[in-house]
Amino acid sequence: MSPDDAKPVAAPTAAAPTAAAAPTVTPVATTAAAPPAAFGPGSVTVPPPGDPATFPALQAEIRQLAHDHDAVILAHSYERPEIQDVADHVGDSLRLSRVAASAPESTIVFCGVSFMAETAKILSPDKRVLLPDLKAGCSLADSITVEQLRAWKAEHRGAIVVSYVNTTAAVKAESDYCCTSSNARAVINAIPVDRQILFLPDMFLGLWLQRVTGRKLTIWLGECHVHAGIRPADVEQWHRDLPGAELLIHPECGCTSQVLEAAGDDVHILSTEGMVTYAMGSKADTFLIATETGILHRLEQKAPGKRFVPVNREAVCQYMKLTTLEKLRDSLRLGVYEIDVPADIAARARLALERMIAIG
Ligand code: SF4
Predict the structure, then answer these.
(1) In angstroms, what is the span from residue 225 Cα to ligand 1's centroid?
(2) Which of 273, 209, 248 lies closest to 78 in space, CA to CA?
């Protein structure tokens, strides 16, 4: 579905798709977020790389356990390569949300971070949802609390709240729509032009949306520490070194706004799934990648023979790297850690998520 085809589903403000408002290029981040909860390299201890010689046996054990426990294994494309390789489905939040909602298995093991497992539970309340490591959080989701959101809404009564999927269940429950980087543009375009939109929590994605939709958004000043750490200088350096390469940038990146100012035909702002699809179809053979480096494994699998160069090799999400094969095996074997979401919060969050999935 193209953005122009998008329609809200049972939204409280339901309306036909609308044309974009007059373009604005002025950031309107009107409310500063409180400092996020502790995150960054010091907040979690990432297990060292495993011994590849042990992977085949562990993966065989995991596949058998998944079969025995009627479980489907979902892995985000930022996970370790050996986790992606053993999963039933690999992808970004939107793709995995859809899979979680329709999977026939009674158990979902989510190799990702906690808001993703919460999302799976909200969409599949009758299923058991397991997260192999409870410390797998998200600095972006931590950048706004439900109390902060309620206060922000009180300052902007009547506004439509659009939350990026990287939020807690409680924040989703206070939102009208969820979105991912794959469909954020379509979600914004589905909202009547005369309605104020509060967009949270990622300011770089919000600024990019403002530009591509021509809508004036009120943007929360949150960020992902990994993507915010990819700076314009990283991109410029690589563009100089590999002038023929195509540049694929995730809209959460701190470099996005500035790179867009000078963007040419070889620069593409894409979600992680968008990067995979683009690389598979492109005639180019070399790509600069500006997102978490876990995506390189998936890109190399889906577009073999092409060269993918991370613009910043330090762009590693330590939360995504917490899940090891041993933890995944133990999660299946012991039934840990089961994720639950209170029924009242889940019911309200589900509405926002279902609108996200329906929009495409
Ligand atoms: S890469 Fe950033 S947004 Fe994604 S899970 Fe890690 S901290 Fe959160």
Answers:
(1) 7
(2) 273
Minimum-distance ligand 1 atom for the alpha carbon of 139: 7
User: What are the tokens at 299?
Assistant: 């890109």
pLDDT tens-digit readout, 51-108: 999 999 999 999 999 999 999 999 999 999 999 999 999 998 878 988 988 999 999 9
Whose alpha carbon is nearest atom 1 of ligand 1? 317
Ligand 1 pocket test: pick from 292, 318, 321 the residue with the most ligand atoms within 8 Å of its Cβ.
Answer: 292
What is the C-alpha to C-alpha distance for residues 100 and 79, in angstroms, rounded to an integer? 17
Extract the runs of DSSP E, i.e. beta strands, from 47-175.
71-76, 89-91, 107-111, 128-130, 160-164
Which atom belonging to ligand 1 lies closest to the Cα atom of 318?
6
Residue with the two structure tokens 């379509």: 186
Tell me which residues of the chain have a pLDDT lower than 50: 1-41
| Cβ-Cβ contacts under 8 Å for 88 (sequence gap 6 or more) | 66, 72, 73, 74
- Ligand 1 centre to CA of 138 (Å) is 5
Residues with CB under 6 A from ligand 1: 78, 113, 138-140, 166, 224-227, 292, 317, 319-320
- The candidate with the shortest Cα–Cα distance to 70, out of 113, 128, 121, 23, is 128
Atom of ligand 1 nearest to the CA of 202: 3
Q: Where are the alpha helices (DSSP H) in the chain?
A: 55-68, 81-86, 93-102, 114-123, 146-155, 169-173, 184-189, 203-213, 225-228, 232-241, 256-261, 272-281, 295-302, 325-334, 343-359
Q: What is the pTM of this model?
A: 0.86
Q: In ligand 1, which atom is closest to the CA atom of 138?
A: 8
Q: Return phi, psi of residue 357, to 5°.
A: -65, -40
